[in-house]
């Protein structure tokens, strides 16, 4: 039986948490139909809904990780691409309605929820540790500067504590004047 959404799965980003809740619901629906007679068209509709929602969620989640400067973003993006590619391959090789239901259940339980419960929790753990370090640095030296990078080769942007806090805790984004890309924590 699949777990149900609870606050311990939160990454403390309202939009991403709402998407995770929706994905938990879709997973529960997939599990619910897995052992019931159902028309192939209904299963295909649920699978398409799942697939499209996952792609949208992965895109939003990657933007969030970039915004907070998550250091394992590239690896996380590879995992997302792998999940989507595996879904495409599963969809292409469907033989029967039961096969379709079984594959949908695999997507829901193995990939999606395992991904949220393991990989996405790593984002939250890193973010909380990063915020604690940031707060403790603030307590000891508010005049400290933080180094940010952009796409310019060997360019370092020195950022004050106040600007750093804005970037880390709000929707503030700052672009390099040279390359016009958002700066990220080094």
From TrEMBL:
<dbReference type="Pfam" id="PF01814">
    <property type="entry name" value="Hemerythrin"/>
</dbReference>
<dbReference type="GO" id="GO:0046872">
    <property type="term" value="F:metal ion binding"/>
</dbReference>
<keyword id="KW-0561">Oxygen transport</keyword>
<dbReference type="InterPro" id="IPR012827">
    <property type="entry name" value="Hemerythrin_metal-bd"/>
</dbReference>
<protein>
    <submittedName>
        <fullName>Hemerythrin-like metal-binding domain protein</fullName>
    </submittedName>
</protein>
<comment type="similarity">
    <text>Belongs to the hemerythrin family.</text>
</comment>
<feature type="domain" description="Hemerythrin-like">
    <location>
        <begin position="14"/>
        <end position="123"/>
    </location>
</feature>
<dbReference type="InterPro" id="IPR050669">
    <property type="entry name" value="Hemerythrin"/>
</dbReference>
<keyword id="KW-0813">Transport</keyword>
<keyword id="KW-0408">Iron</keyword>
<dbReference type="GO" id="GO:0005344">
    <property type="term" value="F:oxygen carrier activity"/>
</dbReference>
<dbReference type="InterPro" id="IPR035938">
    <property type="entry name" value="Hemerythrin-like_sf"/>
</dbReference>
<keyword id="KW-0479">Metal-binding</keyword>
<dbReference type="InterPro" id="IPR012312">
    <property type="entry name" value="Hemerythrin-like"/>
</dbReference>
<dbReference type="InterPro" id="IPR016131">
    <property type="entry name" value="Haemerythrin_Fe_BS"/>
</dbReference>
């Amino acid at each position: 039986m699949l777990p149900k959404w609870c606050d311990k799965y939160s990454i403390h980003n309202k939009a991403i948490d709402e998407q995770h809740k929706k994905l938990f619901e879709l997973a529960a629906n997939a599990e619910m139909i897995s052992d019931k007679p159902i028309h192939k068209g209904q299963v295909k509709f649920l699978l398409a809904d799942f697939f499209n929602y996952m792609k949208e969620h992965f895109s939003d989640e990657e933007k969030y990780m970039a915004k907070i400067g998550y250091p394992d973003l590239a690896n996380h993006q590879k995992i997302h691409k792998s999940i989507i590619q595996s879904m495409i391959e599963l969809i292409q090789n469907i033989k029967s309605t039961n096969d379709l239901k079984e594959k949908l259940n695999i997507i829901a339980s193995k990939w999606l929820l395992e991904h949220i419960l393991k990989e996405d929790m790593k984002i939250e753990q890193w973010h909380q540790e990063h915020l604690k370090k940031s707060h403790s640095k603030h307590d000891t030296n508010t005049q400290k500067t933080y180094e940010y990078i952009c796409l310019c080769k060997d360019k370092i942007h020195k950022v004050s504590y106040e600007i750093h806090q804005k970037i880390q805790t709000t929707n503030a984004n700052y672009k390099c004047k040279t390359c016009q890309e958002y700066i990220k924590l080094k």
